[in-house]
Amino acid sequence: MRSAIILAGGNSTRFGSDKALYELNGKIMIRHVAQKLTETSDKIIAVAKDEAQGEIIMAKVPEIDEITYDPIKNYGPVAGIFAGLKTINKGKAIVSGCDMPYIKPELTNYLYNKTENYDAAVIKNKKGYIEFLPTAIKIKPGRKATKHALKQGDRRILNILNRLKVNYIPINKIEKIDPELKTFQDINKIKDINQPTC
């Protein structure tokens, strides 16, 4: 089974408002992400920061099958990933941010396939650093690694990956699928939405 987890629990401090709920071309941003992910995923889960946000998402994003919540407020993506993985029984999942409206279905399909014989498929940029979102992760090992991190009070994504067998994919292979790397366009401020990818 292929699932998708959309992380929507961030504070969006630099953005100035809730990024997940920001309206872009007549739809809130998280819906753009969900619609792209439905092309390659059987189930879509959103991890919201609270019930108020979750209710709006469920009302405005029919593509989302289930809402869950960050188990520890303001803990960061590790808690959100664990919350999402807890709702899935088997298979693998794509983990995406709510601020990735340009995510390519061809890329998510590629990442799903690259988990064969691995626990996760993670992209590295040209400097060798991890581009964690989007990533593909198998449910059981991913849940175990994130649960361990929460118990240890560890917020670092890298330490989760160190507990997994990871297929690291160089960005030049991703450029064949997404030549302009639009998937990774940073949306930290409202003005970034219409900016070209560097």
TrEMBL record:
One of its GO terms (biological process) is Mo-molybdopterin cofactor biosynthetic process. GO terms for molecular function: GTP binding; metal ion binding; nucleotidyltransferase activity. Residues 4-159 form the MobA-like NTP transferase domain. CDD domains: MobA. Keywords: Cytoplasm, GTP-binding, Magnesium, Metal-binding, Molybdenum cofactor biosynthesis, Nucleotide-binding, Transferase. This is Molybdopterin-guanine dinucleotide biosynthesis protein A MobA.
